[in-house]
């Protein structure tokens, strides 16, 4: 009997990006257990946890809050994390610069060096969402320049579920 491998993934991003919605969507997709319905999801105060089994592995997700005063908490999780998901609200052009700066700060941390980074251009179900190419240009450059071992920007709708399975699979393949 081989021991199941366990991986830890942290889900980061500004408040309102869709981190909690994403985690609930992942849980529903992979465990068949319905998570919180979207109208029950409020701002993340502490953190939300989710675990899924995929292949022979178990992935544990931490959805850390996105409010500014919680960003310092993120740092405690970097050393334990095998991968990072950074969720971007693709409809929020007004906060794109704040989002970019926040991402850059994450990537500048030593503990993050060499870890696979998945950036999700979320809320693609809304017509006002920025195209993934636009987000790619800005964010993937930061990831590459600042030493991500692997990085990718993918379009998703955490709410509708589009792209979520593909993104989990990308992540899983990079954890092996
Ligand atoms: P968090 O603060 O990053 O955890 O964000 P939440 O998961 O609480 O989501 C913030 C708001 O955005 C909620 O009203 C969600 O229903 C909404 N939201 C999240 N993901 C999507 C999405 O893919 N599409 C749309 N249209 N709304 C979304």
Automatic annotation (TrEMBL):
Gene3D superfamilies: P-loop containing nucleotide triphosphate hydrolases. GO terms for biological process: Golgi to plasma membrane protein transport; intracellular protein transport; protein localization to Golgi apparatus. Belongs to the small GTPase superfamily. Arf family. This is ADP-ribosylation factor protein 3. One of its GO terms (cellular component) is Golgi apparatus. It comes from the Eukaryota. GTP binds at residues 13-20, 66, 122-125. It comes from Tieghemiomyces parasiticus. Signal peptide: none annotated. The gene is ARL3_2. Keywords: GTP-binding, Magnesium, Metal-binding, Nucleotide-binding.
